[in-house]
Amino acid sequence: MEAVEKLVQKNGSKIFLIVLDGLGGLPVREGKTELEVAKTPNLDALAKKSALGMHVPVDYGITPGSGPGHLGLFGYDPLKYEIGRGILEALGLGLEVRSTDIAIRGNYATVEYVNGKPVVKDRRAGRIPTEENRRITKKIQESIREIDGVEVIIAPGMEHRTAIVLRFPEPLEEGSDRINDTDPQEVGKEPLEPVGETPQAQKVAQVVKKFIDRVAEVLKDEPKANYLLLRGFAQKPNIPTMEERFGLRSCCIAVYPMYKGLASLVGMDIIEFEGNDLKSQIETLKRVKESYDFFFVHVKKTDSYGEDGNWEGKVSVIEDFDKHLPKFLELKPDVLAITGDHSTPSVLKGHSWHPVPLLIHSPYVLGGTAERFTERECVKGEIGIIPAKKIINLLLANSLRLKKFGA
């Protein structure tokens, strides 16, 4: 048990963790980042009286996926708890994952056949509408229910994403999920063949290969989503909950399934709600505020626009959040943290290794170190540059949930 866990004490304080996915950036216009370009009067006013800093999601120079990025924010060492994206996607879509299962994240894609072989033209099938995803996924499920005695379970996600669970007759040995992604990560290339790194994974890979071929046959006449790329092969991990470690009754208010899945792995209750915007998330937060101690609110589009190289879109999401910030503050959290799980600079069109801006507001911070909530201003803050997994210590301390260490 880590030192901080021995010091935990419970009280009635409320902690809000708002994650603007992929928040950090690099200069995009006149030497300014997306945060610096954005007009954020409410964030800037809050920054002046808050503790600012930067956090490193995994380690210096390491570019994190969304899973490791969020695990760190929840107080878990992402190098200790490695979780495949397939698990997150499956749990987020409400699929049960057992010790007999391999969970996989799927991306519907557009391919063109050249000399009988598929070549990727669009890795996300034009981000097909979610309703179209549901139709296609149902078509696959009705056509493929088992392969060589392995049950196939598939569920639609948002836009081009889906989750697959391969349920084997017996519990799988450790290492059965060590299979490479089939997504080549670039257009103009053939999908990669699934290959197992261990003997037990090789057996799973044979089933996966047959599954891919059968899906391609089912989807061959679809105009856009005519192929399925697979990522994040994973077995179910064993992780202690946030309540066990930190004494926090926690909940998740997120739209996208993967983040719900990750939150459920650390014991958060997933709060379902109508709508998919900040207004509906704030209304939900208000509704459940008295039932929990820790509230994880997730905003996705900062990351999506960053990955698309659309810096104007990313700026617009930041500005939209700024307009809604007063409504969060009206709920009077005892501690409010605003940050990202990683940086997604639009100039890189992907996640990056750069430290992420961090703001913590409570009655017990110094504040007064900066004028705005931006990368350069956060570097000046009292928090400094810290590992993401240590943020939880500061949230607990600022909510007076940690006893004194030693005599």
Strand content: 15-25%
Major sheet details: 8 strands, mixed
Percent helix range? 25-40%
**Average residue pLDDT:** 94
Give the radius of gyration: 22 Å
Regarding CATH, which class of the largest domain?
Alpha Beta
SSE string: HEHHEHHEEHEEEHEHEHEHEHHEEHEH
Strand order of the largest sheet: 10-9-11-1-12-13-2-14
Shape descriptor: globular
Q: Find the count of extended strands (DSSP E, 2+ residues).
A: 14
Q: Could you outline the blueprint of secondary structure elements for this entry?
A:
Elements: H1 3-6, E1 15-20, H2 34-37, H3 41-48, E2 51-56, H4 66-73, H5 85-92, E3 101-114, E4 117-122, H6 130-143, E5 146-147, E6 150-156, E7 161-167, H7 199-219, E8 227-234, H8 242-246, E9 250-253, H9 257-265, E10 269-270, H10 278-288, E11 294-299, H11 301-307, H12 311-330, E12 335-339, E13 356-361, H13 375-379, E14 384-387, H14 391-398
Parallel strand pairs: 1-11, 1-12, 2-14, 9-10, 9-11
Antiparallel strand pairs: 2-13, 3-4, 3-7, 3-8, 5-6, 6-7, 12-13
Helix pairs in contact: 5-9, 11-12
Task: Please supply descriptive tags for the structure shown above.
407 residues, alpha/beta, Alkaline Phosphatase, subunit A, six-stranded antiparallel sheet, 14 helices, 14 strands, globular
Short description:
This protein is α/β, with parallel strands linked by helices and 407 residues long. It contains 14 helices and 14 strands.
Task: Give structural notes.
Helices cover 32% and strands 20% of the residues. It is built from 14 helices and 14 strands. β3 and β4 form a beta hairpin. α5 (85-92) crosses α9 (257-265) and α11 (301-307) runs antiparallel to α12.
